[in-house]
């Protein structure tokens, strides 16, 4: 059974304090590892897709990386507007669907 | 205009009532999905459809049914609503592996 586990469940940072969010996965025949941002009461917003170990993607203060067992979302010098829940999901080659983690709720304090 | 729209955005209904949630998309994607989101449980797949004639059960389909009226429209029905179906419901679309989400419907069953 495919599984995606995110840690920590919640993270509070001061503005400018860099950190990383973790996503551990066991997904058979991984076809892609996805990161989403979700604001309260809104739909998840697509951020990145990573396809193979060693791949990195960047967008503003966010950088996503992928190994064979984990993905990290690095947040550099975060701002309060980066506060959100960050979700990761894996897509397997056998299933025709995404398996989501339960998310990391990030709060960036001014 | 939003690419993926959901109606209604909020709904309060009573136990035993039938209710339909609707999703429309202008992205031209073939694949559509229905998820529910509960605090601490993440996003769970209810049903998915890869085209008008291809509809599949997801992880938690019991108590739900769907209809794919056209490429752009995918409806979710609760035949007899119960309180534990109170949740946030999201529709998503994809053409490949990346999924794009609608704004959600907050459903409360009293």
Structure description:
- The complex is a heterodimer of chains A (110) and B (110).
- In chain A, strand 9 and strand 10 form a beta hairpin.
- Helices cover 0% and strands 57% of the residues of chain A.
- Chain A has strands spanning 3-7, 10-14, 19-26, 32-38, 45-50, 56-59, 62-66, 70-75, 84-91, 98-100, 104-109.
- Chain B is globular, with a radius of gyration of 13 Å.
- The N and C termini of chain B lie far apart (33 Å).
- Chain B is mainly β and 110 residues long.
Report a brief summary of the structure.
The complex is a heterodimer of chains A (110) and B (110). Chain A has 110 residues and is mainly β.
Features:
heterodimer, A: 110 residues, mainly beta, six-stranded mixed sheet, five-stranded antiparallel sheet, 11 strands, 0% helix, B: 110 residues, seven-stranded mixed sheet
List the helices and strands and how they pair.
The complex is a heterodimer of chains A (110) and B (110).
Chain A: E1 3-7, E2 10-14, E3 19-26, E4 32-38, E5 45-50, E6 56-59, E7 62-66, E8 70-75, E9 84-91, E10 98-100, E11 104-109
Parallel strand pairs in A: 2-11
Antiparallel strand pairs in A: 1-3, 3-8, 4-5, 4-9, 6-7, 7-8, 9-10, 9-11
Chain B: E1 4-7, E2 10-13, E3 19-25, E4 31-38, E5 42-51, E6 54-57, E7 64-70, E8 73-78, E9 87-94, E10 99-101, E11 105-109
Parallel strand pairs in B: 2-11
Antiparallel strand pairs in B: 1-3, 3-8, 4-5, 4-9, 5-6, 7-8, 9-10, 9-11
